[in-house]
Amino acid sequence: MAWGLGLRILAIGLSLLAAPAFAQVQPTPDGWRPDQAAARTEAFIDEQLALFANPPAGENRYIILSRVRMLRPDDPTVKREFQEGPERGDPVAWLAEAARLTRTSDVPSRIRAVYLADQALRADPTNVQARLMRARALTNLNMGKLSALAWDDATQALAADPTLHRAHLVRAILFLRGNGLNEALTELNAAIALAPREADYRALRGETLLALGRHQPAIDDFTVALGARPNDGAILLNRAGAYFKARRLPLALADLEALERLKPQSIEVQGLLIEVLDASGRKADADARHLAVIARDEAGVRKNRYLAQRTSPALVKAAAEKRARDAFQSFVNDYSPAEYSYESLIYRMQHAGDARDPAKERGILLGMANDVDRLAKSAFRKGSALSKSPDFQYLGPELSLKLVEYLAAVVRIQDGMSRIGPALRNPD
Q1: Which of 57, 124, 386, 410 sits between 20 and 30 A of 368, alpha carbons compared?
Q2: Which residues make Cβ contacts (< 8 Å) with residue 170, sequence separation at least 6?
Q3: Does the pLDDT value for residue 144 go beyond 90?
Q4: pLDDT-above-70 percentage for the chain
Q5: Which own/partner pairs from 247-255 qualify as long-range (CB within 8 Å, at least 24 positions apart)?
Q6: How far apart are CA 303 and CA 306, in angstroms?
Q7: pLDDT in tens, 110-124
Q8: Which of 347, 290, 369 has its CA nearest to residue 322?
Q9: CB hemisphere CA count around 29 (13 angstroms)
Q10: Does residue 217 carry a pLDDT above 90?
């Protein structure tokens, strides 16, 4: 969706374009209520056991059962299938490992993070850090019915220690998944009051404010976050979106240009730059960018909604002509030095008898021959590909004739090298 039609979803890692990362995750199907934590957790476990008994096609049965094990390690099915005793070691180490695993993206690691935090909590039910870690790991795992348990853990952790800013973050994310923007904002305000230097909190509050239409406060938060992480593409993209919505187009353009330096091949970033240029009345600049992007990746342009609706037959034709010219120039860049090097090689071979050191001269000639081979092969590959490409028809009569002429010359060079090379390598 284009910026003009409303900001899109954005993840903390770079994806394109901009609305809150939390919106990427579907809200839990039946909501959550803190007082239902136990009931919903039991329902989740029963559901997973049923899936284990009759797994859907393509699902790993033991990953399904590991979801049961992470919260009910004494379940008879778990004990029978895993045949493992209680977790061994130090609960402090378990929590450190759980914290590490919560930063990974693979599901088995996230499940183990919940399991380790749960084991630490079982070892000491008064351990506030273990309860908070379980809340964080459950939130990261994002399995609907367990949202209530995550909320309950975070709330209990805050009751025990009101300075635990990450507990506010858990509650904020849970609110956001249910589209509770104002409630999430309250939690994020509390988290930032406790940890004002946390860039992630500022970035997430900025996204929340942006979703609420509060552009300038969102920009302020993104700016603080970028002060800590100036090359964070996700935050740059969000701030560009906020500037765009606030109609501060030069600043939006500046952020997108910074993002382009981080992601020079991104079609999405190019689409956004072109959209801002259009909105700024700079159609010629937008067209020039659009032409370059089509020439580079026409299929990618067709997948981008804004660029696809902006693309005209004239731009497609101009892009094909540009691709053809660029391909021809790339061919010439190899053909010209191949031709020159071949002629130099022939000349030097004709005068090789005058060399004072024949062995040294033969080494020089071999090096020159290798250069000619390399350049001629590259030129032939590029020229042949262009001659067979659909873009060949856009090359124009003059360049088309030159391509045929130069390709014939390359073939003659290769034919000559097929005799010269072996003679140099095997002089006897």
Answers
A1: 386
A2: 132, 135, 136, 139, 150, 151, 153, 154
A3: no
A4: 91
A5: 249/276, 249/279, 249/280, 250/280, 252/276, 253/277, 253/280
A6: 9
A7: 999 999 999 999 999
A8: 290
A9: 5
A10: yes
- The 10 Å Cβ neighbour count of residue 370 is 14
- Looking at residue 233, its pLDDT comes to 95
| Spatial distance between the Cα atoms of 115 and 137, rounded to a whole number of angstroms | 9
Q: Which residue has the tokens 């873009």?
A: 391
Q: Does the pLDDT at position 4 exceed 60?
A: no
pLDDT the model gives residue 357: 87
Label residue 417 left, alpha or beta by phi (over 0 means left) and psi (-120 to 50 means alpha).
alpha
Measuring CA to CA, which residue among 94, 179, 178 is closest to residue 137?
A: 94
Give 302-314 as a 3 state SS string. HHCHHHHHHCCHH
Is 80 exceeded by the pLDDT of residue 427?
no
Stated as kind and residue range, the H or E segment containing 332 is helix 313-350
pLDDT surpasses 60 at 56:
yes
Those residues whose C-beta lies under 8 Å from the C-beta of residue 194, and which sit 6 or more positions away, are 163, 164, 165, 168
Task: Give yes or no for residue 65 having a pLDDT over 50.
Answer: yes
Q: Which residue is associated with the tokens 């992470």?
A: 70
- How far is Cα 41 from Cα 148, in angstroms, rounded to an integer? 8
Burial class (CB in 10 A: 0-12, 13-18, 19+), 389: middle
List, in order, residues 6 or more apart from 65 with CB less than 8 Å away.
48, 49, 52, 77, 78, 81, 82
Give the Cα separation of 293 and 306 in Å (integer): 13
Give the Cα-Cα-Cα angle 108, 113, 117 (nearest 5 degrees).
150
Place of tokens 């284009």: 2
What average pLDDT does the chain have? 87
Checking if the pLDDT of 382 tops 90, the result is yes
CA nearest neighbour of 55 among 68, 65, 41: 65
pLDDT for the residue numbered 85:
66
Mark residue 355 as left, alpha or beta (left: phi above 0; alpha: psi -120 to 50; beta: remaining): beta
- Note the pLDDT of residue 24: 35
| Cβ 222 vs Cβ 239: under 8 Å | yes
